[in-house]
User: What shape does this take?
Amino acid sequence: MGTAVDRFDDKARGLFDRIGTNDVYQGELLRHRPYTRFLHWMVALFFFLALFSGFGIYLPWLFRWFTPIFGGGALARSMHPWFGVGFCFFFGLQVLNWLEPMLWSKADTEWIRGLKNHVLKPEKLEPTETGFFNAGQKVQFWEITIGSVVFLITGIILWIGAGTFGRITVAVSYVLHDISALVMLFGIFIHMYLSTFGQPGTFHSMTRGSVAESWAWTFHPSWYKQVTGRDPRQAHEEARRQMETGRR
Assistant: This one.
């Protein structure tokens, strides 16, 4: 990550640390600081504002009940591109914030190769090399990054119109814009499932910023070892033995 980006990110984190809170209790680890959580929720807010206003514009026969939320069809049409700009702006900041931990590694390649086993295995323990983000999360992050670039470029073309870019370019942009939105929506549904039912305790990291140590050694063991210095498998076994002792 570049020095200028590092300085900007450090200043932003410092500012939000002063005005936000990190509530970490016994048995928990700090996962996401206030700045990261702020970016996450702003990205989510503007994504769904752009999505709902866009549905009302492009499929009014099916989603016309969305437009009154934004004050009617005309106002929804005028607000939609600004929602898109807000989404791309905050996601751009999130890219800078997460660029380093989202870089691909050899462990991620191995994770992808063993994806079938991760999904089908009875235990939820991730491979010991899994760091702050696993390969699946990284794939989704870069999918949304690419989708956001397509979103922004095609959105600008549609916003300015055929008078500047020509009818064919605008027609192609409509298709790419819609496909990009649907792909990202599909990714968001997966993200919402994994952050709630798929990996219980994940949602907590984006509200208070902390996660249980058991969550950390289960889903991100390499990160757990990095921040605690403890072996994640040993911690898991100790907790399992304590639970079995308590049941007797």
Q: What stands out?
A: The longest strand covers residues 28-30. The mean pLDDT is 87. The chain is about 70% helix and 0% strand. The chain has one domain: 3-247.
